[in-house]
Design brief:
631 residues, alpha/beta, Rossmann fold, Arc Repressor Mutant, subunit A, 4 domains, seven-stranded parallel sheet, 27 helices
Length: 631
């Protein structure tokens, strides 16, 4: 619901020249649009349908929030994410925008008040879940709005949820067009950060946006460094990653997310991190709803909290200063991986996406696919998605280039992933590959990687002896290669679909048709050599705060002032019961610390500060700035 201290709603004369730019400056505090934002806003204000693909942190919300303020009537935002509704409504209130949400947490009293605000024309934006939108009672509410103050637009956020092939499919999204078609003159804007070419077509078709213009921003997040390690001991590797850095400080005091596949692993990893001094919390569906809400609230509002979670966590968490996202298990698709890693570095400052992956992850994911209730076609698509994920994990070339190519975007080498920073050495692995394939065939294609490697190494394990595999001609033919390297060879052959682990038989390795030319010697195999040790992830720090691009050139005096401003921001945030970044983002604090404005007029020139925030917080921040003159 709109809070009592929200300023009077934004008033813009219909058709007012330059209205969008004025609202951008006076409400949102920005001097200019980014990328395609201006074209998208202009098209929506003009009443046309639009499909927007823009990466996380690229400014999607502005593309519908601003037109809703410029056009007459109320903007209806459809979102499946209650946490995101709360975050965005809180942020809009601090900008002086009258916004509300209507979901399962809304009381009858709040709903009645919301209706009164709507009919009085005092509501700019209303966030609803798709389930709410589909209710007959809500259609009646929309009819009242259309006949009263009007409906400015329909914004369908997380539009990739229409895809039945996707990782976030929501069946309610398939019926959204049944509602919006009742209001043919109202523009619709569908937005997502994650969509391959198949999903894009589905968005247009299922939301009946056949005439909509599509805006595709770059999927590149250049501030994120992508790092993948061969999994040995995932928990120990995670600790090494968190403690890495030339100064030894690592990610202490930084916010982050660690993704695990199982609830048990989630609890274990969170406990391990707490024992090492990190402020780590577990999040999964096995926890009570009030505990999950508490974890989300702490992560949103406090600094330096790490959440260890299943994939159930993260959607709708609009936290800009997440400095790392780690995966201790292989994600099932590049779409899911891109969305999850995209929760890091939304403020544009340096962040890291780290992952440990091993052959057991492949077996586990294939088992999930086989045991699912999906149709054969659905399982085939899921397997294709997993194969693309494996190709990324085993890449010997630029990871970002592969990731962007998956979303039909071309790029050069990025210079900011592990394969660019420490290019892997390639070697002719034709003979070792033939040895592996021969061992798999001679053992009957009935055993997993561990047993096959024992045969290659010449280990007389009880299992090898009981099956008389110590009598095979392949026994011991790979003793010149270490076990760790054999695991890497097998993993890369699986990623290339030369070998296929059968999850129905405990990961038994089988050969595919792709293996034939390798076995007969007509195809050369070039593989990546495993590194002796994972590269360090450099982290620069200033005092107790992870250093960012925005503060990279700051003096010691500027950094000290940043800390003072940060403390004041926390005080305001606690008093307002909102996350600190909603008051002012870190980038704005760094600009205040380096530019040091002295008057309210100079404050307005700082990006991210508009008239409402000057009125609410200007006096407090100006007093601090005056007390810390430039040295």
């Amino acid at each position: 619901m709109p809070s009592r201290d929200v300023q009077p709603r934004v008033v813009v004369a219909e058709g007012e020249p330059g209205a969008a730019v004025r609202v951008l400056r006076e409400v949102f505090g920005f001097s200019s649009f980014r990328g395609a934002q201006e074209a998208i806003v202009d098209r929506t204000v003009a009443g046309s349908d639009t499909v927007v693909l823009m990466p996380t942190g690229g400014g999607k919300s502005l593309c519908y929030q601003l037109p809703a303020l410029v056009r007459p009537g109320i903007g209806i935002v459809v979102s499946p994410l209650i946490a995101l509704m709360h975050d965005q409504v809180e942020a809009l209130h601090l900008l002086g925008v009258s916004a509300a949400f209507w979901n399962s947490t809304s009381s009858a009293e709040e709903t009645s008040a919301l209706r009164r605000e709507l009919m009085a024309g005092r509501l700019d934006l209303l966030y609803v879940a798709p389930e709410r939108l589909l209710m007959p009672s809500f259609l009646a509410f929309l009819n009242d709005a259309a006949n009263g103050p009007g409906i400015a637009l329909f914004a369908i956020d997380e539009a990739h949820c229409v895809s039945q092939w996707g990782h976030d499919f929501r069946p309610e999204y398939l019926r959204i067009a049944d509602v919006t078609q009742h209001f043919p003159g109202v523009p619709r804007i569908a937005l997502t950060a994650t969509a391959d070419s198949i999903t894009r077509r589905e968005i247009h078709d299922r939301l009946r946006l056949t005439e909509a213009k599509e805006y595709v921003s770059s999927f590149d997040r250049p501030n994120i460094r992508y790092v993948v390690e061969e999994k040995s001991d995932a928990r120990a590797q995670l600790l090494r990653f968190l403690e890495s850095g030339d100064d030894g400080a690592g990610f202490t005091g930084a916010a982050g997310i660690v993704y695990c596949q199982s609830r048990k692993r989630t609890d274990e990893v969170a406990q391990m991190l707490r024992e090492r001094g990190y402020d780590a919390l577990a999040y999964h569906a096995g926890l009570a709803s009030d505990e999950r809400a508490r974890v989300q609230q702490r992560f949103r509002r406090e600094d330096g909290v790490i959440v260890v979670a299943t994939i159930a966590f993260g959607m709708g968490i609009d936290k800009p200063d997440v400095r790392f996202v780690a995966h201790v298990d292989l994600p099932k698709s590049l779409e899911g991986y891109y969305q999850e890693t995209g929760r890091a570095g939304r403020d544009g400052d340096p962040a890291v996406a780290w992952m440990a992956y091993g052959l057991a992850d492949v077996v586990q994911q294939r088992s999930f696919i086989m045991s699912s209730d999906g149709s054969p076609e659905h399982k085939r698509v899921d397997q294709m998605k997993l194969d693309a994920m494996l190709g990324y994990a085993e890449a010997s070339t630029c990871r970002r280039r592969l990731l962007l190519a998956y979303f039909d975007e071309e790029s050069g080498d990025c210079g900011n992933c592990d394969t660019c920073l420490s290019p892997p050495e390639l070697w002719d692995a034709t003979v070792p590959a033939q040895k592996v394939l021969s061992a798999v065939v001679r053992t009957g294609q009935r055993f997993g990687a561990g047993h096959v490697i024992d045969v290659l190494l010449g280990k007389k394990s009880p299992k090898v002896v009981s099956w008389h595999h110590d009598e095979l001609p392949t026994f011991g033919i790979g003793a010149d290669i270490a076990e760790r390297e054999w695991r890497s060879i097998i993993r890369q052959l699986v990623a290339r679909s030369v070998l296929s682990p059968d999850p129905a038989r405990m990961g038994a390795l089988t050969i595919t048709e792709v293996a034939r030319p390798i076995l007969d010697g007509s195809e050369r195999v070039e593989l990546r050599k495993i590194s002796a040790a994972p590269a360090k992830v450099k982290r620069e720090r200033a005092g107790g705060v992870p250093r960012t691009d925005a503060g990279a050139g700051a003096s010691e005096a500027d950094r000290a002032l940043f800390e003072v401003l940060r403390t004041q921001r926390r005080t305001i945030a606690d008093a307002e019961s909102v996350p600190a970044y909603v008051v002012l983002p870190d980038r704005t604090l760094w600009e205040l610390a380096t530019v040091r404005p002295r008057t309210p007029e100079e404050l307005l020139a700082v990006n991210g500060i508009g008239p409402v925030k000057v009125e609410k917080y200007g006096e407090a921040f100006l007093a601090l700035l005056a007390a810390h003159p430039e040295s």
